[in-house]
Structure to design on (191 residues):
């Protein structure tokens, strides 16, 4: 794999997980590539996704908006995307989503990195799902790292049939490490 192909793959991977536009400088820092090379690759990716390089037009597009780049679904497919999301609202939560929701509920407000640190796996897509379903919401930013904090919503309480989080079952004293998790400094998860 050439260096250019490697940068292209890295950019695509990062762009698939961002939830807001990211600047060329941020992408250059993330990939370790030169900003000019990143800008060129982004333009090439946008053209490729639009079918301008001979490949089929994709169902998504790469747009430069608000000073940054992000992948979006094409407006032509809005109806099917909306139907999928609305129907997905009634789908059951996955085990990963339930685990993530439990971490947020018991340790809120919490950052994505802390959730990932506790679960031992990247939880970004699961957090996006929980936010899109209205079960979790942004609750400001961490004063030390600036990372977004998340908390559960009133809709979650309504869905669970409880009036407050205090009505949730107490964490078992027999589960190892939970008291240490509750007392850990948030900055330990932001590395």
């Amino acid at each position: 794999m050439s260096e250019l192909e490697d940068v292209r793959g890295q950019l695509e991977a990062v762009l698939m997980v961002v939830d807001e536009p990211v600047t060329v400088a941020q992408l250059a820092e993330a990939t370790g590539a030169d900003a000019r090379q990143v800008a060129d690759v982004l333009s090439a990716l946008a053209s490729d996704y639009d079918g301008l390089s001979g490949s089929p037009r994709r169902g998504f597009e790469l747009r430069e908006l608000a000073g940054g780049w992000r992948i979006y679904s094409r407006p032509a497919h809005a109806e099917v995307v909306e139907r999928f999301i609305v129907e997905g609202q009634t789908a059951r939560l996955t085990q990963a989503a339930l685990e993530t929701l439990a971490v947020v509920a018991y340790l809120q407000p919490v950052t994505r990195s802390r959730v990932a640190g506790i679960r031992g796996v990247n939880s970004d897509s699961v957090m996006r799902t929980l936010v899109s379903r209205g079960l979790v919401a942004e609750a400001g930013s961490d004063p030390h790292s600036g990372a977004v904090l998340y908390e559960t919503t009133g809709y979650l309480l309504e869905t669970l049939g409880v009036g407050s989080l205090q009505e949730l079952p107490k964490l078992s004293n027999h589960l190892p490490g939970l008291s240490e998790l509750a007392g850990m400094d948030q900055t330990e998860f932001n590395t």
Observations:
- The chain has two domains: 3-77, 95-189.
- Residues 137 and 150 are 6 Å apart (CA to CA).
